[in-house]
Design goal:
6-stranded mixed beta sheet, 39% strand, 126 residues, Nuclear Transport Factor 2, Chain: A, 2 helices, alpha+beta
């Protein structure tokens, strides 16, 4: 199997893990040391951000539409959906826009493109 296909398979397994085990399951696919949105991050850092998103949007879902791989990179076009029912505490979640904002109870749907760079079957950059 080509490296692109191997990387694409890893990301597809990550998407399946999110559906099966919850939003924070994707942290298990990150290397111990990675770069997340341009900042150095440990797996624990990534998990903390994902937990804050899950707390802010308890019904969070990623609905993938396209998964495309080239070289070390895999791009995922997806819809992020959820209901703002929690209080975000993490300054890096949503660029800090929701940190400290009282829950609104409003539902959101945002189309996103996530790009992941993989090495050795783990995400090293997002």
């Amino acid at each position: 199997m080509k490296p692109e296909e191997q990387n694409k398979t890893v990301i597809q397994r990550m998407i399946e893990a999110i559906e099966r085990d919850g939003f924070t399951a994707q942290a298990d696919f990150f290397a111990d040391q990675s770069v997340n949105h341009g900042m150095p991050a440990t797996r624990a850092d990534v998990r903390a951000v994902l937990l804050d998103i899950s707390t802010t949007f308890p019904d969070v879902r990623l609905e993938p539409h396209d998964v495309v791989a080239e070289g070390d990179w895999v791009a995922v076009r997806c819809d992020f959906t959820g209901t703002h029912e929690g209080l975000s505490q993490h300054p890096f979640v949503h660029e800090g826009l929701l940190a400290g904002v009282a829950p609104t109870g409003k539902s959101v749907r945002v189309q996103l493109i996530h790009m992941f760079r993989l090495e050795g079957g783990q995400v090293v950059e997002h």
